[in-house]
Fold this protein.
Amino acid sequence: MLPSSTVENYLKAIYVGETHLTGGEQLVPMGQLAGALGIAPGTATTMVKALSESGLVVYEPYNGVRLTAAGQKLAARVLRRHRLIELFLVQVVGMKWDEVHDDAEQMEHVVSDRLIERIDEMLGQPEVDPHGDPIPTADGQLPHRTLESLLTCPLHTPVTVARVTDQDAAFLRFIESHNLKPGQTIEVEARDDVSDSVRLKGANNALMTIGARAASKLLVTG
Amino acid sequence: MLPSSTVENYLKAIYVGETHLTGGEQLVPMGQLAGALGIAPGTATTMVKALSESGLVVYEPYNGVRLTAAGQKLAARVLRRHRLIELFLVQVVGMKWDEVHDDAEQMEHVVSDRLIERIDEMLGQPEVDPHGDPIPTADGQLPHRTLESLLTCPLHTPVTVARVTDQDAAFLRFIESHNLKPGQTIEVEARDDVSDSVRLKGANNALMTIGARAASKLLVTG
DNA sequence: GATTTAATTTTGATTACTCAAAATTGACAA
DNA sequence: TTGTCAATTTTGAGTAATCAAAATTAAATC
């Protein structure tokens, strides 16, 4: 049986949740999953038990959930579709990068494999989407780059923005208007723990100060 | 409340059904509706009663159903989306005309107004889709051309294919392989009621014979 | 007018997904 | 060890959409 949009969304959320696990953690907590999907905790429990029955996840009561190989394959497929569609909407259709998330969120569940392959071909088998998020390969591998955030990269050294890990439209518009999109070169001038902020020099030598929370969402390469 | 995909499909089927009504008929019979949607007759009855409650249709028990102004507006919107998406997938994405129906069927319910407008713009406010089916305008008007079919057009007279009223992929491939797509010029050589067939001369003077049922699906202009 | 038939409606049930609120569990602190 | 608390699970209920099969209706035939 092919998975419903709902099931695909659960798997995707668990998949993304797993990549955010820190340290020795193995399982995505139910609360986090429910939060990510915007549903009541009890609903998540019920659904995850069903997914477990289908062999898509391993569920440990009170501890959390993780994907099986089968679940991971499906999740990677959905994420691949999402990111290819986002890039397509920006590159081919000419939409803005802060406009494409919701359309991709819907289209990822319904378009044919043929259309996805055609998009992949048109875009030349791209590796990242407009936000710099890596696109899983057709066989379900998620390429991993080790990137530093603006909170950890070296000071007074030119770095290139590689990834923006927040889909919020207002945030993306802020990034764009301040010339901080992936590909642009910037430099961290100073960090201040007390004021919880980071001071940057932008592409055009423009100086700006952003909060630490925002800075943590900007990933760069040396 | 925004209509579900299911509701949109019911409205679209009723809308299309209305355009097929012959003579003094006003209402789409429930059986025809259920058939078009591939659902059990009882399901159609239940759903249509609910649509009637919402003011989207007028339902006359045992007689059938028709759209209200509100229902018509929604239906035209869905049909517009469907046909714009089909044309987009052919013209921009480079899919074949026999491949796009299913994707359009799904996408019509989920893509944003912004994306549809962008598509409309990219295509230059087109009037017909790849099959020659008219695209409803943004304000819900369905342009109507009076076309003759190959069963009724004059003999031995060059005519241009304007519309193919069948979405079946095999049929569309047949049409394409015989150079009978919209825009191509052909001529009806003869009709034979006994053998239930029509004899044509194609673009390259190729002669062919097709059945009356197929011929009725090819609409032409003089 | 009575009867048959085909279309339609009604009935009863099922599946997938959801929530609110009550009950439970496990971990940590006292 | 016991109590507290937050996270989680369970319970009971609701919505939307569907089907199969029984009941009904309208129309057509006799």
